[in-house]
């Protein structure tokens, strides 16, 4: 099946610094990528949807200047958490979908801890 | 935002018993998918059922879909300890739409 690789799997950063998370589709062209955030024992909350070559569409309540999403190629999307604070500590998961298909494939997630 | 709710929120059963989880959603869908998530890990895709299907099987999994009631159920038969995980339903519309998750069910299998 299709593979989506997310990196890093874990990251610890100091408060005030920025962290970049990468999401790559390894064997298909991902025209659409989704970024989710998951707090402990809760469900996945959609943060934003990005289409290759265009600006991401953010969900209500998600700060676009804080969570920068870049989808510059058909195989790579990045999420940058800028000026991270402890409340940004969470599990971030990406998923990727090929044009014309309804199924999406998920990365293994990134656990971000801001200290 | 979340598409819908799952119930129960938590379920604890004896190994060997069957586990049933339900998912309700709000809008029209093209398909519905079920995922498993082990604690602190990524998602594992279990099964996808399309809006024109009523039931689908995969190994010990059986999924039903009732579009008139906007609900789906996941049945795991002959449960095993390894089935302990959180289970989520996710709804998708067209190939251009978002994929939204339900609230999830935490399943615990007692040995």
List the secondary-structure elements of chain B in sequence, H or E: EEEEEEEEEEE
* SS class of chain B: mainly beta
Assembly type of the chains comes to: heterodimer
Low-confidence stretches of chain B: none
Report the biggest beta sheet of chain A as strand number plus sense, adding barrel if it closes. Answer: 7 strands, mixed
Span of the ends, CA to CA of chain B: 36 Å
Number of strands of chain B: 11
Instruction: Give the C-alpha Rg of chain B.
Output: 13 Å
- State the end-to-end CA separation of chain A: 37 Å
Blueprint (SSEs and pairs):
The complex is a heterodimer of chains A (115) and B (111).
Chain A: E1 4-7, E2 10-13, E3 19-25, E4 32-38, E5 44-51, E6 57-58, E7 67-73, E8 76-81, E9 90-97, E10 105-106, E11 110-114
Parallel strand pairs in A: 2-11
Antiparallel strand pairs in A: 1-3, 3-8, 4-5, 4-9, 5-6, 7-8, 9-10, 9-11
Chain B: E1 5-7, E2 10-14, E3 19-24, E4 31-37, E5 43-50, E6 55-58, E7 61-66, E8 71-76, E9 85-92, E10 99-101, E11 105-110
Parallel strand pairs in B: 2-11
Antiparallel strand pairs in B: 1-3, 3-8, 4-5, 4-9, 6-7, 7-8, 9-10, 9-11
Account of the 3D structure:
The complex is a heterodimer of chains A (115) and B (111). Chain A has 115 residues and is mainly β. Chain A has strands at residues 4-7, 10-13, 19-25, 32-38, 44-51, 57-58, 67-73, 76-81, 90-97, 105-106, 110-114. Chain B has strands spanning 5-7, 10-14, 19-24, 31-37, 43-50, 55-58, 61-66, 71-76, 85-92, 99-101, 105-110. Chain B starts with a strand and ends with a strand. In chain B, strands 2, 4, 5, 9, 10 and 11 form a six-stranded mixed β-sheet that branches. In chain B, strands 1-3-8-7-6 form a five-stranded antiparallel β-sheet, with no helix packed on it. Chain B is built from no helices and eleven strands. Classes of the chains: A mainly beta (115), B mainly beta (111). At the A-B interface, strand 4, strand 5, strand 9 and strand 10 of A face strand 4, strand 5 and strand 10 of B.
């Amino acid at each position: 099946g299709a593979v989506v690789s997310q990196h890093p799997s874990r990251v610890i950063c100091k408060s005030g610094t920025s962290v970049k998370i990468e999401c790559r589709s390894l064997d298909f062209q991902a025209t659409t990528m989704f970024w989710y955030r998951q707090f402990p024992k809760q469900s996945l909350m959609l943060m934003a949807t990005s289409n290759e070559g265009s600006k991401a569409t953010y969900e209500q309540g998600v700060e676009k200047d804080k969570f920068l999403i870049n989808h510059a190629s058909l195989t790579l999307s990045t999420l940058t958490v800028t000026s991270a604070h402890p409340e940004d500590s969470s599990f971030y998961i990406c998923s990727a979908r090929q044009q014309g298909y309804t199924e999406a494939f998920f990365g293994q997630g990134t656990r971000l801890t801001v200290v | 935002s979340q598409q819908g709710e799952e119930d129960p929120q938590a379920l604890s059963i004896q190994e060997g018993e069957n586990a049933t989880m339900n998912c309700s959603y709000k809008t029209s869908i093209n398909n519905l998918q079920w995922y498993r998530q082990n604690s602190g890990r990524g998602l594992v895709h279990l099964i996808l059922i399309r809006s024109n299907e009523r039931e689908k099987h995969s190994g010990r999994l059986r999924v039903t879909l009732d579009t008139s009631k906007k609900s789906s159920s996941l049945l795991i038969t002959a449960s095993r300890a390894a089935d302990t995980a959180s289970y989520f339903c996710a709804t998708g519309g067209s190939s251009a739409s978002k994929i939204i998750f339900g609230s999830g069910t935490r399943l615990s299998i007692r040995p």
